Structure formats: structure tokens, C-alpha cells
Amino acid sequence: MLPLPLSRFLVVFTLCTSAFAAVAQDILLNASYDVSRELYKDINPAFTASQGGNVRVSQSHGAASKQVLAVSNGLPADVVTLNQAPDIDALVARGLVKSTWRSEFPHQASPYTTTTVFLVRKGNPKHIQDWSDLARADVKVIMPNPKLSGSGRYAYLAAWGYGLEQYGGAGVRGFMEKLLGNVPVFDGGGRSATTTFTQRGMGDVLVTFENEAILIANELGLKDFDCVYPSLSVDASAPVAVVHKVAERHGYSKLAKAYMDFLFSKEGQALIAKHHFRPRDTEVLAANSAKFPPIKTFRVEEKIGAWPSVLTTHFADGGVFDQITESRP
Amino acid sequence: MSAAQSKSFTVLPGFGTSLGYTLVYLSLIVLIPLAAIVAKTLEMDFATFWNTVTSPRLLASYRLSFGASLLAAAINSVFGLLLAWSLVRYSFPGKKIIDALVDLPFALPTAVAGIALTALYAQNGWIGQLLAPFGIQIAFGPAGVLVALVFIGLPFVVRTVQPILEDIDTELEEAAVSLGANRWQTFWKVVFPILTPALLTGFALAFARAVGEYGSVIFIAGNIPMISEITPLMIITKLEQYDIAGATAIAVVMLVFSFVLLLAINGLQVWTARRTGRSL
Predict the structure, then answer these.
(1) Is the N or the C terminus of chain B less surrounded, counting Cβ atoms within 10 Å?
(2) Which 8-state DSSP code applies to residue A112?
(3) pLDDT confidence band for A20 (50 / 70 / 90)
(4) Span A279-321, pLDDT tens digits
(5) What is the pLDDT of residues B87-104, one digit of tens each?
(6) Which one, of A118, A79, A95, A100, lies nearest residue A226 by Cα?
(7) What 3-state DSSP class applies to A128?
(8) B29 touches chain A (CB under 8 A)
């Protein structure tokens, strides 16, 4: 039997790039998603210092679902830090993560959350205040492809949740048809949507994660944009889990747990806030209240449905997103 | 005794070794990975496979991917030939630099190319803002896909035509002229037929590269369903849903399409070579 899955070939490459340095020191591998790159660049040295310098954490970053495929196919990650719970559930299905992962750490094992907000051009020339404005005929909306990126998925679900609340189950689809009809470009990921909006001058509003919006508005030297908070948005908690199968094999179970605990510590939470994610720790959150204005959010599971069914109903081939976008004028 | 006979006809030694090596190497590098793709696809039953690969959205993506790739290869054949002609036949200052520039699309990471082209052709880019007043939008549409594919395919045509052009004896052209051919006839009847097989190879390579191209196209295409989604993007979309069998099913269709087209181009090459009395 030779039919090796194609993915196994890919693993070889991933292994070469990420886990090459297996020397005497303890090295934990954290497989994470794209946008967390800068965050873990700060977290990891701080964790090393907290452990007396004997541990190092190496990182593997990529699109969340690619990371899940890589870990399922053998990328020896001891922990995964992703941006959507279903991605970790996919690892549970492979027997790599315990099914009880949500209860192993506080807040359903998510050290921080973020939400979906708007970024508009300076002075908000189109007076965009809420999701309903995104369905207006004179507004062009930039958001990443929900089938390809977590950021796009949350943007879509946030709009859907708002539509449910405003127009009810019968009206939400018509609202989404108008909104998605206003999207001139579906970029492959959150960062490329940002580029399309900020550098290419496309669209009147960028729908993206709050951390990305704050980063653009405050830090990138791009002072030409304003953040707008809609009346309702989605809670995008970032889940973390120990990959027990791998951690046990490496003898890193304790270390992996210590690393996860560090994310929930005061120091970890402060670093998280520094990178524009909303920390769970109430004190750290209060200290950063200027950066994180209060916003009403809903959880996908509570408002729209359980993740597996949401994924199949909306984002699978032939799902609601496809139906709407394939038939748009 | 046929074995001994065929042996006596081979002048070069080492036929068995080199053929064995060829087969093993080709299997390792090409056939086994391709077999893995087909094997993964076989996990689906035929009805599922057929529904997957003939959905309207995918059909639209085939039209764009194969249509734009063929068009890009055709454009490159014309302008690549001109470029090769200039590089071989004329000498001018900076020729070496231009010659080196031709290879840049090979070397540049495709994502970089895609981002650079998008920056140029977007409505606020250098080229895009000149076209915008005329209502022409290149970036974020099928035209953008074509631009990216022309960019990445150029070196293939230039580099296949150039050496052949260098090898053509100018005596041939002089003879044609002395026999009364005008310039156009000299080019069309003498030079062009010699170049045709190489030009077809360049066309085939540029086409094959363009069909599989993802990195550069994805930034400039806009990725709107039914309008500007390329087939490789559809494969990535499937992978994103952990639908590996679906992804490989599309890959198999692309492989079959491409193989048939490349085979046809090879056939055309043999035919033109035979017509001009050369053997390949």
C-alpha cells in the first residue's frame, strides 16, 4: 500500500523548517496562527525568563487550518494556540488533543479575546456607524474570504448575528446579500485585506479584528484611518491547548502546562494587551480601558449555532456563503 | 538473438543504466506524488467526484485559469520572440543587463510579484491611476490575472527561443535575399519555421507554469466567485475545509487537462518539425 497522502510530503518540509534544532536545552514547539507572530515574539522570551532560562519556545506560524493539517500529519507541536475552537476540535478528532481541553484552562481555555470592528478612512466620510451601513448601495466593503480566513469568518458571522437581531431569521439573508454584494475583493487572509484597504485604496470600510484595526490606526504610522465600533459584534476568543500526544512523547506535559498557565498570568496578560488583544484579567483590562472601549458581543455558539453546524451551513461548498456570492448580481 | 542484435545497434554504452536511472528518478520525483493525488481522489465515488469537479463555480474557475493561461502564453510567445530577437540580433548598451532582467520573474518569489503588480495596477497605483479615468480596471479582476500570468511566463519563451535564434546561420537569410525574397518573406519563410518548435516549447512551458500559478495571482485577482477565482484557489478552499479528497479531485482534473494540452502542443511541435524537414 503506497498511497501516501499528499500532506505527508508537506510534513517533511514543515519539519525541516520548524523543528530542526533539537539540542540539549528543552524546546517547546508552539504551532500558532499568522497574526499572533508579534505577540509570541514577546511572550516566549518572557516565559523563558520566568523558567530561569532553561526552556526555549520555538514557533511555527501559518494559516490556522494549515497548522491544524500540519499538526495532524505529524508536526511535533507541544501546544497549539489558534483563533477558532473548531480548529482544536479537529485535533481532538485525530486523538492528539484531549476532548476535555476546554476545561483545562480558564475561560474555555482562551487567554484572550478580540472582536470584529470597522476601520474607515479618516473622518469617516461615508458615515459608517453600524453593520446596516455596510449594506448601503454607496458603500464598498473590504473583508477577507470567510472560506479561507478566520478573520473573514468572524466578520461574516458578526454581520450575520447583527442581521439576526435586527431583521430576524427571515430578513438576515437579504441583509447579507446586500452586504456581500458590496465586497469588491475577497482576499485570502486578514493581512492582505488590510493591504487592499490601506495601500490599494479599495473600499470605504475594512471589516477586521480589533487587534488588527488598532495596530493599523495607532501603530503602522497610518494615521489616515479611524476605528468604528458597531453596536454588536462577535466574541472571537482565541483557544489554546496542549497537544497531549506530542507533549507526553517529549516528556513536556508539565512544561506545556506551565507555558499555557503563563499566558493567563499577569505578565502574560499584560503582553497580550500590549499587542491589542483583549486580556481576560480584569485588572489588566481595566488598565487598558482606553484602548478597549466596551462593546456588546455575542458568542457564535449561543447566537448562531454549534460550530460544526455553523461551518457546514455557512462555509462548506454550496453553503450559504457560496449561495449568496455565486448568485450576486 | 534480438537482444544481441539491438545491442549491436547501440553505439553509446550504458543504455540500460541510464534508462533505469531515468525511470527511477522520474518515478520518485513525478509519478509517485502524482499517483498519491490520484489515490487520494479514488477515496471518492464517481458521482461525488463528478459533482465536485463540475460545480458551476469550478467551471467558471477552469474557464478563467485555462483561458487566461493560454492567452498569457500566446502574448508571451509574440513579445517573448520580439525580445529574444532584439537580444540576439542587435547589440546595444545595457544588453547584458536586459538579458539578466528577463530571468527576474523566475527568481522573484511569486507573492512578491503579485504584491508589486497589484500595487502598480490598483486604482491608486502608477499604472492603475492612468487607466482609471477611462473606466479600465486591471487589478482585482480577470485582467489582473492575465497581467500576473504574462509576467511569470515571459522568461520561458525568451529562454527557449533565444538559443535557437543564436544558432541560425545568417547565411540562410543572405541566401534567401539573394534569391529574391523580401524581408517579410525571409522572416516568415526562412527564420520563423526554424523557430516554431522552440516557440511552441516556450508556449507550452509558459502555459503549464501559468495554470498552476497561485502566489502571484491571488493578490491581484480579487477572488470574486464566478468571476475572478482561479482553479488553484478552489483547491486551497477545499483544503481549508479539510476536504483533501475534494482538493485532489480538482488537482486530477487540472492534471488531465494540462496533460492533454501539453500532449497536443508536443504533437504540433513534431508536425512542424517534420514539415520543415528536421527531426527532433
Answers:
(1) N
(2) E
(3) very low
(4) 999 999 999 998 899 999 999 999 999 998 999 999 988 899 9
(5) 999 999 999 999 999 998
(6) A118
(7) coil
(8) no
3-state secondary structure of A140: coil
Q: For residue A1, is pLDDT > 60?
A: no
Amino acid of residue A39: L
Amino acid of residue A6:
L
Q: Are B56 and A326 a contacting pair at CB < 8 A?
A: yes
In the DSSP assignment, the letter for residue A39 is H
Q: Is B244 close to A6, i.e. CB distance below 8 A?
A: yes
Max distance between CA atoms of chain B, in angstroms, equals 78
Q: How distant is the Cα of B145 from the closest Cα of chain A, in angstroms? A: 13
B143 touches chain A (CB under 8 A): no
**Cα–Cα distance measured from residue A224 to residue B158, given in angstroms and rounded to the nearest whole number:** 44
B254-267 average pLDDT score: 90
All residues of chain B having their beta carbon less than 8 Å from the beta carbon of residue A147 are: 237, 240-241
| C-beta of residue A241 within 8 angstroms of C-beta of residue A97 | yes
DSSP class of A276 = T
Question: Looking at the predicted structure, is the pLDDT value of residue A24 above 70?
Answer: no
CA distance A251 to A244: 10
How far apart, in whole angstroms, are the C-alpha atoms of residue B182 and residue A46?
79
Cell triple for residue B163?
Answer: 538559443
Strands A205-209 and A240-242: unpaired
| Cα B176–Cα B182–Cα B186 angle in degrees, nearest 5 | 45
- Which residues in chain A have their CB less than 8 angstroms from residue B115's CB? 195
DSSP assignment of A250-318, as one string? HT-HHHHHHHHHHHHSHHHHHHHHHTT-EES-HHHHHHTTTTS----EE-HHHHT--HHHHIIIIISTT
Per DSSP bridges, beta strands A240-242 and A79-81 are: antiparallel
Task: Note the pLDDT tens digit of each residue in A68-107.
Answer: 989 998 899 999 999 888 889 999 999 999 999 999 999 9
- What predicted TM-score, i.e. pTM, was given to this entire model? 0.79
Residue B120 touches chain A, beta carbons under 8 Å: no
For B123, which of A63, A145, A201 is closest by C-beta distance? A201
- Mean residue pLDDT of chain B comes to 89
Identify all chain A residues contacting B32, using CB atoms and an 8 Å cutoff: 2
ipTM: 0.71
A184 phi and psi, to 5 degrees? Answer: -85, -20
Of all residues in chain A, the percent with pLDDT exceeding 70 is 91
CA angle B161, B162, B164 (to 5 degrees): 70
Reading the block at residue B79, the C-alpha cell is 513579445
Written as nine digits, the cell of B95 is 544588453
Show residues of chain B in contact with A187, CB under 8 Å: 219, 223
